[in-house]
Design a protein that fits this description.
single chain, mainly alpha, about 0% strand, globular
Length: about 300
């Protein structure tokens, strides 16, 4: 039994560098097989095994990778160039002031949001896609919410923060109806988003990165107990979830051409329903929390 445990540990509990390299290889292998539509059964089964192994070592090795990333972060922060940046007024404020750092993140997210909106609108016009235009409108509303938060970030008034937090919850609640309508139309027409060429892989990387970063930031923000910061991270999570939804429909359109139409409807409906449920849950919680805190403050 001890020998079996030792073998399993060597196979599935790898050091950080092999974990990252093998995981990237496994995910890249299955994506390549799907992208180039390779029909060789040996390569297909090998890609499935590689991707399954990549998933396992990602789960078992994430703790070790996180520890290693902490060492890398310490090395970067200790680098002379970083020390020089931290000695400046802007650098010192960025690393010591949570609100200033959150403001930088909000402005960054706001401008990236604008670029994303332009890309979706242009794609919608060029490819005559109703879904791209609908998604662009949704992201315009998210950009408006980010703008409202940026304006209140430096105003250290908890009452005003709670009111803006509640307003964001109400807007999310309203926007969720539009998102549900998009999902219903996608399911009814059995259509979705389509990314031309290799753009789908770039969008896949962005979508998964956005979800991971959004979840991590929500956990980190809880200890600051700032309604504005919490609202900002909630918006980031909503944007990431909508990206996952559009990515799934795009992958079904690009790689699932021969699938049963009912399967595509079920998958789109399940994912869309899950995203809408999460968003409405977040919106209700934000409204409830803001009302509770405002009543307590009198």
């Amino acid at each position: 039994m001890d020998k079996v445990k030792a073998i399993l540990r060597k196979l599935f509990f790898l050091p950080p560098l092999p974990t990252v390299l093998l995981a990237l290889f496994g995910y890249g292998f299955v994506i390549a097989v799907a992208a180039f539509q390779i029909t060789n059964p040996v390569l297909q089964y090998a890609s499935y095994i590689a991707s399954a192994y990549a998933l396992i070592i990602t789960i078992t090795g994430i703790v070790y990778v996180k520890k290693a990333s902490g060492s890398i972060k310490s090395y970067i922060l200790g680098h002379p160039l970083m020390k020089k940046f931290r000695s400046t007024v802007v650098g010192e404020k960025y690393f010591s002031d949570v609100r200033f750092r959150a403001g930088v993140s909000l402005y960054q997210g706001f401008f990236i949001n604008l670029l994303y909106i332009v890309m979706k609108l242009v794609s919608g016009i060029i490819y005559r896609s109703t879904w791209f235009v609908a998604l662009a409108v949704y992201y315009i509303l998210l950009a408006v919410m980010r703008f409202l938060l940026v304006r209140r970030l430096n105003v250290k008034d908890e009452t005003l923060e709670l009111r803006r937090y509640r307003l964001c919850g109400l807007m999310l609640l309203f926007m969720n109806q539009a998102l549900a309508g998009i999902v219903i139309f996608m399911v009814h027409r059995n259509q979705g988003f389509e990314y031309p060429g290799l753009l789908i892989y770039a969008m896949a990387a962005y979508a998964f990165y956005a979800v991971i970063i959004a979840v991590v930031n929500i956990v980190k923000t809880r200890r600051h107990k700032s309604p504005v910061l919490s609202a900002a991270k909630a918006i980031n999570l909503v944007a990431a979830l909508v990206s996952i939804l559009s990515l799934e429909t795009a992958m079904l359109s690009q790689f699932g051409g021969n699938d049963d139409p009912m399967f595509r409807k079920v998958m789109t409906g399940a994912t869309g329903g899950g995203v809408c449920t999460i968003v409405i849950g977040m919106a209700i919680y934000m409204i409830w929390r803001a009302n509770k805190e405002l009543k307590r403050k009198g």
